[in-house]
Amino acid sequence: VSEDVPAPQAGDIYHYESAIHRLGQMYEQRFRNVSG
Q1: C-alpha–C-alpha distance, residues 13 and 34, integer Å
Q2: Is 32 or 14 the better-scoring residue by pLDDT?
Q3: Using CA atoms, how far apart are residues 3 and 26, in angstroms rounded to an integer?
Q4: CB 23 within 8 A of CB 30
Q5: Which of 1, 11, 19, 23 is the most buried (most CB within 10 A)?
Q6: CB 30 within 8 A of CB 36
């Protein structure tokens, strides 16, 4: 039996919200100069 937390906690780089934020930043940087 493990007593570790079951998922990354808020503030952890692997936390869902942190990962989505990083992906958004990467997308913005990558496609900054694309005209629409």
Answers
A1: 28
A2: 32
A3: 35
A4: no
A5: 19
A6: no
Confidence (pLDDT) at 26: 96
For 1-36, the DSSP string reads ---S-SSPPTTSTTSHHHHHHHHHHHHHHHTTT---
Backbone angles phi, psi at 26, to 5 degrees: -65, -40
Chain center to CA of 36: 26
Phi, psi of 5 (to 5 degrees): -65, 145
Measured distance CA(1)–CA(17) in Å, rounded: 28
Q: What is the pLDDT of residues 10-29, one digit of tens each?
A: 888 889 898 899 999 999 99
Q: Where is 1: in which H helix or E strand?
A: none
